[in-house]
Amino acid sequence: MSRVAKKPIALPKGVDLNLQADTISVKGPKGTLSLAKPAGVEINVENGTANLSPAGEGNVAITGTIRAILANMVKGVSEGFERKLELVGVGYRAAMQGKDLNLSLGFSHPVLFQAPEGITISTPTQTEIVVQGADKQRVGEVAAKIRSFRPPEPYKGKGVKYSDETIIRKEAKKA
């Protein structure tokens, strides 16, 4: 069995893991997340920890994956996930208009982006965007969607980039 699957998931105070016949739901202070229960994985919850084990011989690989997904769900409903983006370029700005994100990215028109349900977007400064939510996958998806409006280019580094991303710069064309 994989080393990841053997590791138990600690359930913090205020987090509740419910097992139904076909779904697994995790409820906490930041919200509720659910997952379709996969065949071939057994889940036991006791004394504030959840342990996973494969139900048969060929189900070892999926057990580690489901354990990682459940651990991310527990962390999401207790602490939440956050992704920071930076706007690099002259005149590149971000501002909130109600629940919509208004981006000025050098196009002839502003780009309006509506935050999906369960995701909060904030702009601490005009060149910073913070995407927060309980679901790790959706937070990453929304951050990637915002970045895709103007990905950073390799010559000047202009565009929307993750705050921890390093842009590998290219040398300009020589005459």
Average the pLDDT over all residues and give the rounded result.
91
Question: Can you tell me the CATH class of the largest domain?
Answer: Alpha Beta
Shape: elongated
Subunit organisation of the chains: single chain
Q: Termini separation (Å)? A: 60 Å
Poorly predicted regions are none
Characterize the main sheet.
Answer: 4 strands, antiparallel
* Sequence of secondary-structure elements: HEEEEEEHEEEEEEHE
Helix content: 10-25%
The third-level CATH topology of the largest domain is Outer Surface Protein A, domain 3
Largest sheet strand order: 11-12-7-13
The figure for the number of domains is 2
What is the number of helices?
Answer: 3
> Which structural category fits the helices and strands?
alpha+beta
What is the number of strand segments? Answer: 13
Radius of gyration: 21 Å
Strand content: 35-45%
What does this protein structure show overall?
With 175 residues, the chain is of the alpha+beta class. The chain folds into 2 domains: 3-78, Outer Surface Protein A, domain 3; 81-162, Outer Surface Protein A, domain 3 (Alpha-Beta Complex). Helices cover 21% and strands 38% of the residues. The chain has 3 helices and 13 strands; from the N terminus they run H-E-E-E-E-E-E-H-E-E-E-E-E-E-H-E. It has helices at 3-6, 60-78, 136-148, and strands at residues 9-10, 16-19, 23-28, 31-36, 41-46, 49-54, 81-88, 93-97, 100-104, 111-114, 119-122, 128-133, 159-162. The strands form 4 sheets. It has a 4-stranded antiparallel beta sheet with strand order 11-12-7-13, with helices on one face. The chain has a 3-stranded antiparallel beta sheet with strand order 1-6-5, with helices on one face. The protein is elongated, with a radius of gyration of 21 Å. The model has no long low-confidence stretch (mean pLDDT 91).
